[in-house]
Design goal:
Layout: H1 2-19, H2 29-33, H3 40-44, H4 46-49, H5 51-58, E1 65-69, H6 77-83, E2 89-94, H7 101-116, H8 118-121, E3 124-128, E4 143-149, H9 152-157, H10 161-171, E5 172-185, H11 191-197, E6 200-201, H12 202-211, E7 215-220, H13 247-256, E8 261-267
Parallel strand pairs: 1-2, 1-4, 2-3, 4-5, 5-6
Antiparallel strand pairs: 5-8, 7-8
Length: about 270
């Protein structure tokens, strides 16, 4: 009888053992965000850019292949590269070395940053986003996530937005995530005004993304700033961190903080 009861007990417990799945490893946010590889100046921007909350909203995991479009000086590279260092892959789709003086300066500064700290950035693969024709930011259909932080207006000015969205779509696996953070204008703003101010409306970005095949999956207010009116003559650059503003407006603009931003999560359809 005891043997029968033991057998029954084992059969009852077996399903629980079979369905148990290993928990996803927790990302080491603390050591990355507070690491010595980040300057105090860049850490101070966390208050406005919410890197952890933003990347968690997009669904970042440590074993993903992630592409960042136009990483600039590498603010998000400081976060993404170490998070993905052990098990993931990180592509930085930067400027072309043949894209003119500004493009070369920006790319050169970024490469110097990587070269000075190989322990942190040794896993970064630098690819080219521009010029806009025939670019490959990562092998087609391999990326789990493509990210765009505050640069849609630049692609609009360069008339490369449609192509940039297409190469992002091509790089993603079916079901992959395209995450966008962008200075937010009110819906209906004239596109030329968007280009001039850096503020782009949600309806414009959503329509552009849908036109190449993306589906809007979710949106978040994690990067919203209701203190930002978005109506400055010289656009978003009047606010921190640029602060290209008249002296009489400086303190008021510092008090506003960084811009009001949309945070949109698109997906490439699975079929």
């Amino acid at each position: 009888m005891q043997k029968v009861m033991a057998l029954i007990s084992g059969l009852v417990l077996a399903p629980a053992i079979l369905v148990a799945a290993p928990a996803t490893a927790a990302l080491d946010w603390g050591s990355v965000l507070n690491g010595e590889h980040r300057s105090d100046k860049n850490k101070a921007r966390d208050e406005f850019r919410h890197p952890r909350e933003t990347l968690e909203f997009f669904g970042l995991e440590e074993d993903m292949t992630v592409v960042e479009l136009s990483p600039g000086g590498g603010w998000y590279t400081e976060v993404l590269a170490p998070l993905l260092h052990e098990k993931g892959s990180y592509y930085a789709a930067h400027n072309s070395p043949n894209g003119g003086a500004y493009s070369r300066r920006s790319l050169g500064g970024y490469l110097q940053k990587l070269g000075k700290d190989n322990d942190t950035y040794g896993n970064v693969t630098v690819t080219t986003l521009g010029p806009a024709d025939s670019v490959v930011i990562a092998p087609a259909g391999t990326a789990d996530m493509v990210l765009a932080f505050r640069n849609v207006h630049s692609w609009m000015r360069a008339d490369t937005l449609a192509n940039t969205l297409l190469v992002a779509y091509d790089a993603l696996k079916p079901g992959g995530v395209f995450g966008v953070v962008q200075h937010r204008a009110k819906d209906g703003r004239d596109p030329e005004r968007m280009k001039a101010t850096g503020y782009v409306s949600e309806d414009y970005i959503i329509a552009a993304a849908r036109s190449v095949g993306f589906e809007l999956d979710d949106r978040s207010e994690v990067n919203a700033n209701p203190k930002d009116t978005g109506d400055y003559d010289d656009g978003v650059w009047e606010l921190p961190p640029s602060l290209n503003t008249a002296d009489e407006n400086r303190e008021a603009h510092i008090a506003i903080g960084e811009s009001d931003r949309m945070t949109l999560k698109f997906v490439k359809p699975a079929s």
